[in-house]
Every structure is written in structure tokens, then in C-alpha cells.
């Protein structure tokens, strides 16, 4: 099988979403329903993940699908329809999580088990969905656009995100990808913000990585290893 060498607009964000979905499914399975703090942590985890998934499909609808349809009419219809179903799934999961938090103690375990099953189905559906996008949507984009044009679509998408959403996705993406992609993510950021602001963001992001990964990233960015560990 020949591997693609074209620009893959889905690669980094989909790695981040796969990691986040897996993490949240594990968190639901681990929740102690008799511990209010554990339930509150789960509520934040589930709602943040669902917000990321909803924001991602909204961005695809607004930027990637119009680009596909402009040059290959009908090419985004299947996934656009799936996005409608995913919005319904997201609302169902929000309601299931809220029901768990509001339930009487003797009902919580059953509701936690239900949330786990619903979220597991959501994960399975999204894994298949993302694979279809990576195979079929990329094929459309590569046939209709040059890499520079695809990058421009991505830049427009990212540029439309509010700062808090950019930070949320960056914190999900950085630990999910190899050093080369971390350098690309942070390299652009480094050029676009003041040095002091970048230092603060970098310090926050480094807490997501182990010591070895911090050292490799610091070396690739031309920072001192000591600075990476200190961050």
C-alpha cells in the first residue's frame, strides 16, 4: 500500500479527538458514583469532550465541506448527514450525563452504566466516521486542490476559532502527535504571539508531556533542555 505524501488536513485533529474520546470513555467506566467530586470531574470531562466534538463538526461544515462541494458537488453529503445525527447524539449524551449528576444515590450506577454504553457507541461511530473522512474526503481534496490551497482552508478554519477554543484543541493535539507535529503546531504559534505569551503557553503545554518528550520538543524548537524541564 502506497502511503500518501499530500497534506492531510484531518491527521492531527483526528488523532487528538481519538485520544480524547478514549480518555473520556475510560473516565466514565472509572467513575465512583458515591463520590460527588468524582461525579463533578466526570461531568466536566464529558461536557468538554462533547464541546470539542461539536466544535469540530461545526468547523468542518463551515470550511471543509463547502470547499469540497465547490469543486466536487455531492462529495460531502454523506458526512454532512452523519453530522446531523452526531449533533443529536451529543445532545443525548449531555442529557444522560446531567441525569446521572441529578439522580438519587441508588439510581446512579445504572445511569452511569447507561452513559458508558451510549458513549461507547458514540466512540465507535466517530471512529468509523473519521476513517471515512480521512480516506474519502482527503481523496476529494487532493484531486481538487493543491496542498497550499488545503493549508489555506485549514488556516481559515483555525483563524475563525475563538482563542479559548484554539487553546482547548491545542492542549488535546499536542500530546496526541509526534514531535515533528508538535514543532509545526508550536512553530506557527511562536511566530504569531509575543515571546512572553509564548513562554506561558509553552510552559502550560509542557505539563502534558513526559520529561523525554519535553526534551525532544525543546531541542527541536531550539530551546534549552533545562528550560523545557523548568516549564
Give the structure's gist in a few sentences.
By secondary structure, the chain is an all-alpha fold.
Strand and helix layout:
Layout: H1 11-30, H2 36-71, H3 77-102, H4 108-144, H5 147-159, H6 163-173, H7 179-192, H8 195-206, H9 211-221, H10 225-230
Helix pairs in contact: 1-2, 1-4, 2-3, 2-5, 3-4, 7-9
Describe the structure in your own words.
It is a single chain. The chain has 231 residues and is mostly helical. It folds into two domains: 11-162, Up-down Bundle (Four Helix Bundle (Hemerythrin (Met), subunit A)), CATH 1.20.120; 178-231, no CATH class. Helices cover 81% and strands 0% of the residues. Helix 1 packs antiparallel against helix 2 (36-71), helix 2 (36-71) packs across helix 5 (147-159) and helix 3 (77-102) packs antiparallel against helix 4. The longest helix has 37 residues, at 108-144.
Amino acid at each position: 500500500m502506497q502511503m500518501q505524501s499530500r497534506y492531510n488536513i484531518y491527521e492531527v485533529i483526528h488523532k487528538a479527538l481519538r485520544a480524547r474520546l478514549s480518555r473520556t470513555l475510560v473516565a466514565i467506566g472509572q467513575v465512583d458514583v458515591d463520590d460527588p467530586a468524582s461525579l463533578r470531574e466526570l461531568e466536566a470531562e464529558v461536557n468538554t469532550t462533547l464541546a470539542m466534538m461539536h466544535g469540530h463538526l461545526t468547523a468542518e461544515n463551515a470550511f471543509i465541506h463547502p470547499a469540497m462541494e465547490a469543486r466536487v458537488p455531492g462529495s460531502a453529503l454523506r458526512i454532512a448527514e452523519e453530522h446531523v445525527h452526531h449533533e443529536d447524539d451529543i445532545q443525548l449524551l449531555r442529557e444522560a450525563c446531567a441525569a446521572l449528576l441529578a439522580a438519587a444515590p441508588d439510581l446512579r450506577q445504572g445511569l452511569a452504566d447507561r452513559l458508558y454504553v451510549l458513549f461507547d457507541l458514540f466512540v465507535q461511530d466517530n471512529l468509523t466516521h473519521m476513517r471515512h473522512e480521512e480516506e474519502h474526503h482527503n481523496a476529494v481534496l487532493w484531486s481538487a486542490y493543491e496542498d497550499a490551497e488545503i493549508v489555506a482552508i485549514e488556516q481559515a478554519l483555525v483563524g475563525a476559532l475563538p482563542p479559548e477554543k484554539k487553546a482547548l484543541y491545542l492542549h488535546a493535539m499536542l500530546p496526541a502527535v509526534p514531535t515533528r507535529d508538535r514543532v509545526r503546531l508550536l512553530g506557527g504559534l511562536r511566530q504569531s504571539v509575543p515571546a512572553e505569551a509564548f513562554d506561558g503557553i509553552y510552559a502550560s503545554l509542557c505539563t502534558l508531556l513526559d520529561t523525554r518528550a519535553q526534551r525532544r520538543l525543546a531541542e527541536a524548537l531550539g530551546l534549552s533542555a533545562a528550560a523545557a524541564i523548568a516549564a
